[in-house]
Predict the structure of WGS project CCBQ000000000 data, contig 00102.
Amino acid sequence: MTEGDGRLLGSESPINENVGHSQVVTCPVCGKEVKSLRKLNAHLDNVHGFNDKHASDVESSRESSVVGLNTHPQDTTLGSNNKGKIKMKTAHWKKPVDGKSVCFECGHKLNARNGLINCRKCGELFCLNHCKNAIKLNESGEYDTTTNGIWFKCCNTCYTSREGYNDFGLSKDVTSAFKRIRNTKNEDGELISLQLENRLLRLINGIIKINVRHQYSILSALRIKPEISNLERSIVEWKDDQVALKCDICSQPFGLLMRKHHCRLCGLVVCDRETSRCSSEIPVLNLMSAAPDLAFENVESLKAISQLSADIRACSSCLRYVFAHRKLQFNKTLQLPEILKQYENLHNLEMIVVNLLPRFKKALETLHDNHPSEKNAVHNLAHLRRKLLQNLALYDKLSKRIVQLEVKSEAENKVQRSIALHASAFIEEKMLPLKKIPEVLNPTTDKVEVTKSSDLLFNNLTIAEVKKYREELMVLREQKYLVENMLNSAAKERRFEEAISLKSNLLEIDMNINDLETKLGDEGF
Ligand SMILES: [Zn+2]
Ligand SMILES: [Zn+2]
Ligand SMILES: [Zn+2]
Ligand SMILES: [Zn+2]
Ligand SMILES: [Zn+2]
């Protein structure tokens, strides 16, 4: 960051607007305040030697001020005041030699016409054109920007080689100062948001209390409203709206269409225009869910959380203070890697299964205790079992998807492996009690169904059953034919081990065919 100086016109001072037509301007070189542009001009001529015609030292420009614009003695500057106090050493000044001295920069012979001047810093001789810079020097001729230094003439080399010089003016690093200011502002901001948070918490806790107190009263609606109004007034002192002429946020004047509202958190008078949204009424529940980290009290005493129907009016500035960093943190927590996001879903499924299993086991026990034909118990058990199996299937699917995810780091890789291990162990453990059930469950449910739909019977079978058994029989006969062929070729090629297992398969198929044929009786084909 730089602070310009340079030879420009003085900048207008923003502080003094009430001086009238005579503007106060500051000198771009030394920062001194001057009452008018005219006086600045004179100041530049006198103190900084900007008067080209009379380019000379401060001492000689005092004489030129008679010729120049300014003749008021009170305009003599600090520099010229100090002038009397300090005596510049002149030992290093080069002595001019008549007719032989040349300008150290341009080499022109120096005479009365083009000037003959020593640079106050290096002491070399120059023509007037090459020694017209102003620089602050102290008694020993050293560059000095403190009050010890006063303005002197110097050559271009001395001017440009001074500390902090750059082509666009003096450079001054104000970054650290800026940082300091910024930090204190940030700290202020944190303090403000803490204070507003406290008010919001007090307000919401108060509203909850009022609701709890009246929740069983018939007149609750009549009582809650005025109590909340009183509470709102106690949180922060409200600014007098009689004297408020314009919105404290958007500065628009109030009128018939611009109604006045008080922010319940800062007490300022603000508008509620749609376009500027300087303030808005927000349901308490929304505020609570947007700041779940605040310590809300007595929520559990409410009959139902939805009964909190009150709104709180807050201005946009307060809302930003309280909720801006919350939204930020909310966003931060959302930046989870894909694998952890998926794991959350997996974990949820796991919890469902873990919660369902004890219920299932209990239902199974009651079924064993009572008579197994209890319809409701069987139904319940079947329902729970189906639910468990569905969730486990989903769990299995999701865990496989996680295992196939592309991982981005070694850490994620580790997480992936442990999820895979855990998931397979979990499925095996939880599937075990479910596997035993079919024997208990299926015969009973089948029986129920069979007796229900016994309108048309063939050998005590329904039409559907006949159809089903016939299909099964067909498949088995096809299988038998295939296995017989395989057995023959295995025997031919002396693959005896294969032949033995094929033989036992064939026996099994024959048994099943016999079974089905007896069931179907005359309906077989
Ligand atoms: Zn100045
Ligand atoms: Zn020269
Ligand atoms: Zn010099
Ligand atoms: Zn407004
Ligand atoms: Zn406010």
In short: Residues 463-523 form one domain. The first strand starts at residue 11 and ends at 12.
